């Protein structure tokens, strides 16, 4: 049963005021708190014995609690105070509200301070506040978490529980309930963890410790740490018992944020905890037996380092909850450079050795993939940097049906300022304790505090957010901490209340429903739960309308130290009727209500819910892909050593020694079954896997195979014209000096039985650290020639490497390749940092051309001039396509008879951004005359070109920079143009990136192409391995992608958001990303090479090489027949039943470092096909 309360729709009566207002009206109006009766200010009292140096949590501030304490339908407010008493304000507003000019408050908004009368004043250091009906008598109680300084006695650090007497007075009863707590308490969250019907409580804690909070050490995981949180079970008699140990709440953490959620959607409440400093976040998954297990390391690839508050909600309306967590990364260049030390790679690796999960300094947005994994997309979303932040609150502030993001921030004194930190280190080396302290305090007082505006981000509906802080009314700098939202005037939109340090609390009225141009609707849902959970904590609401879904989980304890109103608010955009509203209560009972009108308050009642009827299980559709490595006997783990490129060139954006492995597929032993080779590393030889008659694989060794360099591109092809496949390995990496003999490529010749022997005389003496190797008969002489891409000059990044054209001159069983680069393709000399290449006939003239991509290179196409020379084409079309390209795959994706391409790039989920007008560049030179290349990267920050590196990293690269910038402040103040002289900049070797999206390259004919970015999920991470094929049997080519990179520098952090991707094509050049729950295609971690292989029974297997991890094999659902190309076959023309034709090329090497089966799969959509060799002759 639903109780409906119509909300008033107010007409604007202040006509004259709106006539004079800019049409771009701000969404929020700041309300003069004092004018509406709110005088609370969280003022601190500073003394010589109480500074931030004595008490590191001095400026963490207080929280806000919103709830209706007297059941009059209006939301009241409680502010927690640190060194001032908390305040309770009764909402006595007159409705409807009308707008007055800014600064004069809000007519109708009126609050009364009833703190003393109600008996809720405090005289201790209070952190978090929660409003909860703890005794289930129908009245909101107030629970306060208490802490203090290092000198605060234990008696003054006991939590406070104000029990509502039902007459606007309260009685303190924490001891009677057993909820006084112990230690340094931060915040609480009430929930029914054991499903016995009543509310238990999780107590978030922190502590003072005598060791460095940021130094890796053995974790405390047995409950022995004073920083371990506590879980209290409700005994059912108005008392609580600490059950932390038996429930598995045992892991340490400097807790600052906690939220209850159902993260794995099993209808049992889980607990998410954000922890400060080096201690990892915790995700306590409910085991459904009264215990919890921390699964954070399994669900998340990385976390926020200095985690403050958090919020959990569904940001993209897919019915899955996502997680936002805030840190202290500055947005602007100056603050970034005076607070970020840069690439502390050794410290990062040391923390991993101690068992810490990866953490990076920035806000994170964890997107729920629906399969027990999350992709962190904060950079892509645009919310990663909001300075010293505290409370993130996800809610629909403009009622458009999407959850926006509000973030409070600010810190009274900048103790993270690196000049201050270095000064402190020097000061503490000598002198007295008191003298040192005075000097440090004096220095700190000279540094401006971190006083910036709060942030408001509008959800754009495409997994990105736009900063609307100023446009929506949040331009005032503050020191803000806890915050809460609620509809204070019952007008159908969410207002905001914020607790500030040393300033009056701020109130923001939401003007969405007061606008004379209002177009958005809303629905508010309240709860009337069972007798022991009357507020309905843990209930789930699903709204379905117009093919959309909105989902929310009800818990009011959100953000930082605060609790929101006891309603769920849904913006609906222009929708005025909801098709269905479904409520699922914690015990599993549910109710569905149809055709619910918008713009009202709906109260759902537990009494109306019914048990869910168990239905016979419906057969689920078989997924397209399944992991089968163990089933096929493929057991291979790629192993890297501990070489660190940053020791050679500290300014590198990423390492080049951890870029494999690639995979090559062919029938090595001529038994009709396809085998594969996976590349090795400096410390590990590559391995051959031979397919057996039962479809399983057996590992095979190669005689005299060394492990002296990284295997990069790997390729099977007939090098010596004896009809079997030989193996070419491009040697690469960066672990040896340039021109080292260890960079010589290797060719292993096949004896026809699968035995490979290294040939030492077949290849020219080339000592280039390489990447891609691909083969084709480019000169139509009947044998296969090679292109070998040069990846890097070790120690001289980003100077251009040489690439090579090797003509096959094998005669009379003497295998020999000749370097013809200078005469046939001189552009390949110093071509750039090539990562991938493809022999492909771009213009259907019968001669294979070359498509090439690389790091800081534009997409490049070289036309084959009759097998004699190569010339670059479409330069204008690719003029601004320079990026960090990794790979190429191809297919006739629009079925127009020519080959199109997909190029894997860095993606958009990164700190490094660039475009045509504001490119990302490197200016490389030997600036300090030390004999080494210094690769100085620049990027545009807020419209100005800035050096992208920290002062520390610059000094590691070129120590004389200390003379130019003696401290962090002047370095931060200098733009790139002022950091180096005009002559230095002019003489530097410059490369730039302007396009970082993984892209579809459409062949529009005549040697021309158009480039377009692929869907947003493709941009989550760098794309490396790719394979194309028709995987859903609709006659159209699809694409599989894998990626990520763990070789990054630490201040940016790992690229790890990809879990593998299946892009479904429509035959017109368009693609949609298919959710992993539908596809089953999962290849996560640091994935690199990707190849397809055909089993003897006609099933297709996708092989994925993962750097420093296990190789993965994904089986494609269903078997089919295949045409396997002969060695001389180049392409096929395929006719479809729908009358269309498409072209398929058979590649010797494609995508990233790899080679797939040269085959064509049959389907019922194909009528016929014709096959042609490299010379254009039809078979």
Structural class: mainly beta
* Fraction in beta strands: 35-45%
Oligomer: single chain
The DSSP helix count reads 17
Q: End-to-end span in angstroms?
A: 73 Å
Poorly predicted runs of 5 or more residues:
4-23, 97-107
Overall strand count: 80
Q: Based on CA inertia axes, which overall geometry fits? A: globular
Helical amount among residues, as a percent range?
under 10%
The profile of the biggest β sheet is:
5 strands, antiparallel
Radius of gyration: 32 Å
Mean pLDDT: 93
How would you characterize the overall build of this protein?
This protein is mainly beta and 1179 residues long. It is built from 17 helices and 80 strands. Strands 56, 57, 58, 59 and 60 form a five-stranded antiparallel sheet that branches. Helix 9 runs antiparallel to helix 10 (433-445).
Helices and strands in order:
Elements: E1 2-6, H1 15-19, E2 28-31, E3 64-67, E4 76-79, E5 87-91, E6 111-113, H2 115-118, E7 125-132, E8 141-147, E9 160-164, E10 170-172, H3 174-177, E11 184-191, E12 200-206, E13 230-234, E14 240-242, H4 244-247, E15 254-261, E16 270-276, E17 282-286, E18 292-294, H5 296-299, E19 303-304, E20 310-313, E21 322-325, H6 333-339, H7 345-353, E22 359-360, E23 364-368, E24 374-376, H8 378-381, E25 389-395, E26 404-409, H9 418-427, H10 433-445, E27 452-453, E28 455-459, E29 465-467, E30 477-478, E31 480-486, E32 495-500, E33 506-510, E34 521-528, E35 540-545, E36 548-553, E37 557-558, E38 562-563, E39 568-573, E40 577-584, E41 590-597, E42 600-605, E43 625-627, E44 663-666, E45 675-678, E46 687-691, E47 697-700, E48 710-717, E49 726-732, E50 746-750, E51 756-759, E52 769-776, E53 785-792, E54 804-808, E55 817-819, H11 821-824, E56 833-840, E57 849-857, E58 860-865, E59 869-873, E60 883-884, E61 887-891, E62 900-904, E63 920-925, E64 934-941, E65 944-947, H12 951-957, H13 961-964, H14 968-973, H15 976-979, ...
Parallel strand pairs: 19-22, 34-42
Antiparallel strand pairs: 1-42, 2-33, 3-4, 4-5, 5-6, 7-8, 8-9, 9-10, 11-12, 12-13, 13-14, 15-16, 16-17, 17-18, 20-21, 21-23, 23-24, 25-26, 26-28, 27-30, 28-29, 31-32, 32-33, 34-39, 35-36, 35-40, 37-38, 40-41, 43-75, 44-45, 45-46, 46-47, 48-49, 49-50, 50-51, 52-53, 53-54, 54-55, 56-57, 57-58, ...
Helix pairs in contact: 9-10
């Amino acid at each position: 049963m639903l109780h409906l309360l119509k909300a008033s729709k107010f007409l604007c009566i202040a006509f004259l005021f709106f006539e004079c207002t800019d049409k771009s009206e701000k969404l929020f109006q700041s309300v003069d708190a004092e004018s509406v009766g709110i005088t609370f200010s969280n003022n601190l009292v500073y003394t010589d014995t109480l500074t931030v140096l004595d008490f590191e949590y001095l400026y963490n501030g207080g929280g806000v609690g919103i709830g209706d304490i007297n059941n009059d339908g209006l939301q009241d407010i409680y502010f927690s105070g640190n060194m001032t008493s908390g305040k309770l304000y009764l909402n006595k507003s007159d409705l409807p509200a009308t707008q007055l000019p800014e600064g004069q408050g809000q007519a109708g908004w009126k609050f009364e301070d009833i703190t003393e009368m109600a008996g809720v004043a405090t005289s201790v250091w209070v952190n978090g506040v929660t409003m909860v009906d703890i005794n289930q008598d129908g009245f909101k109680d107030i629970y306060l978490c208490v802490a203090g300084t290092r000198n605060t006695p234990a008696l003054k650090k006991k939590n406070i529980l104000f029990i509502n007497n039902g007459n606007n007075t309260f009685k303190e009863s924490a001891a009677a309930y057993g909820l006084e707590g112990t230690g340094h308490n931060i915040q609480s969250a009430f929930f029914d963890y054991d499903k016995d019907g009543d509310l238990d409580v999780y107590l978030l804690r922190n502590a003072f410790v005598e060791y460095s909070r940021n130094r890796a050490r053995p974790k405390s995981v047995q409950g022995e740490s004073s920083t371990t949180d506590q879980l209290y079970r409700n005994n059912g008699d108005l008392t609580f018992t600490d059950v932390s140990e038996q429930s598995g709440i045992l892991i340490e953490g400097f807790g600052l944020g906690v939220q209850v959620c159902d993260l794995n959607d099993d209808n049992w409440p889980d607990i998410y905890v954000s922890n400060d400093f080096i201690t990892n976040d915790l995700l306590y998954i409910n085991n459904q037996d009264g215990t919890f297990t921390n699964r954070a390391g399994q669900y998340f690839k990385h976390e926020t380092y200095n985690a403050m508050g958090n919020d959990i909600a569904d940001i993209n309306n897919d019915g899955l909850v996502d997680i936002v967590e805030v840190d202290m990364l500055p947005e602007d260049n100056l603050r970034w450079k005076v607070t970020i030390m840069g690439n502390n790679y050794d410290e990062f690796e040391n923390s991993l050795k101690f068992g810490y999960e990866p953490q990076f300094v920035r806000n994170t947005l964890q997107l729920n993939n629906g399969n027990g994994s999350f992709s962190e997309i904060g950079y892509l979303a645009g919310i990663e940097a909001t300075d010293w932040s505290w409370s993130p609150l996800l809610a629909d502030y403009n009622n458009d049906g999407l959850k926006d993001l509000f973030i409070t921030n600010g810190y009274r004194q900048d103790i993270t300022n690196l000049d201050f930190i270095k000064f402190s280190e020097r000061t503490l080396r000598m002198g007295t304790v008191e003298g040192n302290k005075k000097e440090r305090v004096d220095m700190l007082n000279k540094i401006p505090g971190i006083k910036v505006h709060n942030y408001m981000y509008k959800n754009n509906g495409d997994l990105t957010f736009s900063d609307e802080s100023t446009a929506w009314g949040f331009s005032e700098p503050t020191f803000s901490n806890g915050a809460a939202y609620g509809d204070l005037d019952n007008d159908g939109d969410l207002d905001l209340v914020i607790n500030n340090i040393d300033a009056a609390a701020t109130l923001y009225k939401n003007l969405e429903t007061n606008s004379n141009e209002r177009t958005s609707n809303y629905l508010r849902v309240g709860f009337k739960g069972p007798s022991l959970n009357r507020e309905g904590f843990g209930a789930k609401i699903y709204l379905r309308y117009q093919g959309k879904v909105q989902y929310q989980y009800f818990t009011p304890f959100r953000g930082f130290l605060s609790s929101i109103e006891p309603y769920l608010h849904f913006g609906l955009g222009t929708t005025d009727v909801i098709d269905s509203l479904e409520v699922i209560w914690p015990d599993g009972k549910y109710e569905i209500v149809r055709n619910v009108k918008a713009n009202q308050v709906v109260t759902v009642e537990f009494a109306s819910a019914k048990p869910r009827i168990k239905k016979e299980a419906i057969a689920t559709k078989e997924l397209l892909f399944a992991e089968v490595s163990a089933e096929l006997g493929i057991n291979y783990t790629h192993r890297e050593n501990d070489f660190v490129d940053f020791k050679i060139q500290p300014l590198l954006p990423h390492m080049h020694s951890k870029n494999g492995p690639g995979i090559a597929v062919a029938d090595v032993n001529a038994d009709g079954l396809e085998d594969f080779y996976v590349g090795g590393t400096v410390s590990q030889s590559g391995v051959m896997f031979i397919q057996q008659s039962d479809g399983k694989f057996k590992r095979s060794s190669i005689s005299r195979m060394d492990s002296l360099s990284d295997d990069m591109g790997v390729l099977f092809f007939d090098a010596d014209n004896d009809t079997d496949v030989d193996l070419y390995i491009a040697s690469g990496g960066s672990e040896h000096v340039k021109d080292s003999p260890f960079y010589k490529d290797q060719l292993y010749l096949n004896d026809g039985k699968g035995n490979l022997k290294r040939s030492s005389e077949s290849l020219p003496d080339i000592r280039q650290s390489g990447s891609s190797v691909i083969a084709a008969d480019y000169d139509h002489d009947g044998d296969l020639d090679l292109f070998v891409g040069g990846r890097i000059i070790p120690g001289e990044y980003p100077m251009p490497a040489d690439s090579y054209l090797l003509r096959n001159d094998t005669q009379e069983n003497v295998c020999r390749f000749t370097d013809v680069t200078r005469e046939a393709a001189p552009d390949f000399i110093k071509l750039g940092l090539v990562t991938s290449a493809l022999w492909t006939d771009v213009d259907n003239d019968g001669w294979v051309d070359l498509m090439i991509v690389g790091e800081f290179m534009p997409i490049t196409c070289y036309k084959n001039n009759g097998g004699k020379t190569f010339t670059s084409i479409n330069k204008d079309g690719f003029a601004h396509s320079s990026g960090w390209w990794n790979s190429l795959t191809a297919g006739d994706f629009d079925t127009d008879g020519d080959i199109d391409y997909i190029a894997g790039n860095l993606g958009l989920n990164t700190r490094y951004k660039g475009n045509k007008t504001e490119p990302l560049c490197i200016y490389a030179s030997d600036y300090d005359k030390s004999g080494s290349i210094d690769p100085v990267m620049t990027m545009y920050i807020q419209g100005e070109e800035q050096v992208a590196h920290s002062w520390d990293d610059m000094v590691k690269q070129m120590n004389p920079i200390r003379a130019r910038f003696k401290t962090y402040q002047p370095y931060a103040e200098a733009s790139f143009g002022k950091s180096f002289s005009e002559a230095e900049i002019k003489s530097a070797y410059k490369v730039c990136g302007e396009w970082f999206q993984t892209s579809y390259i459409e062949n529009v004919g005549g040697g021309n192409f158009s480039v377009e970015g692929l869907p947003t999920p493709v941009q989550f991470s760098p794309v490396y391995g790719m394979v194309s094929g028709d995987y859903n049997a609709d006659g159209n080519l699809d694409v599989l992608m894998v990626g990520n990179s763990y070789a990054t520098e630490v201040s940016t952090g790992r690229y790890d958001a990809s879990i593998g991707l299946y892009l479904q094509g429509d035959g017109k050049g368009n693609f949609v990303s298919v959710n992993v729950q539908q596809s089953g295609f999962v290849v996560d971690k640091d994935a690199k090479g990707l190849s397809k292989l055909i089993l003897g029974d006609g099933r297709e297997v996708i092989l994925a090489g993962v750097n420093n991890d296990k190789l993965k094999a994904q089986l494609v659902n269903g078997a089919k027949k295949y045409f396997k190309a002969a060695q001389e076959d180049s392409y096929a023309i395929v006719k479809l039943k729908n009358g269309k034709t498409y072209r398929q090329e058979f590649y010797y090497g494609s995508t990233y470092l790899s080679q797939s089966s040269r085959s064509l799969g049959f389907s019922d959509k194909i009528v016929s096909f014709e096959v042609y060799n490299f010379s254009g002759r039809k078979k």
